[in-house]
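Protein modeling request. Please complete all fields; requests missing the sequence field cannot be processed.
Requester role: graduate student
Desired output: 3D structure, token encoding
Chains: 1
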Amino acid sequence: MIRHIVTPGLDIAVAGKLNEIVEPRVFDEVLSSARTGDVAALGEMYRFYQPSLVRYLRANAPDAADDLASETWLDVAGGLERFTGGEPDFRRWLFTIARRRLLDDRRRIIRRRQKRLGLDPERHAKQRRQRKQTGGQPCQSRVRANHSVSRRQFARLPYGEATLSIQRRSGSLAFEQIAENG
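Delivered output (182 residues):
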């Protein structure tokens, strides 16, 4: 529990409990010191909240939790002057920032996957706008993009499955109809 600005021998395992409430007067002192640039006060806040923050991030992004926590604390340090409220508000603010960093990380992962598959999100956004303007009809570049993605996906399938899937897609046939035709 945060008792004063610098706590020698603070037990980090006990300090980061999710349901532990910090005394409002003490939290306000630490917060005001951190706002004025007191590194020890910011360090004390870090030691108190970091364990629960990392637990949250590890539950949602195990591989990136430490990096996301670092990004979160950088945003917190930069925004402390704008923050208003007490300890429960700070906890909500901290986890809101962490959630936003988590969503940013997920977007980065999706963009990397799209680039690896040869899909360009900007091009797809342009194609969606074009489809809206043409009344929902796909533009030719979209058809070509889908065709090249389909070819790559079919190339990964065993021959028999690829043939069935192509027949089903191109002929709009159910698997039962394909099986009947032999």
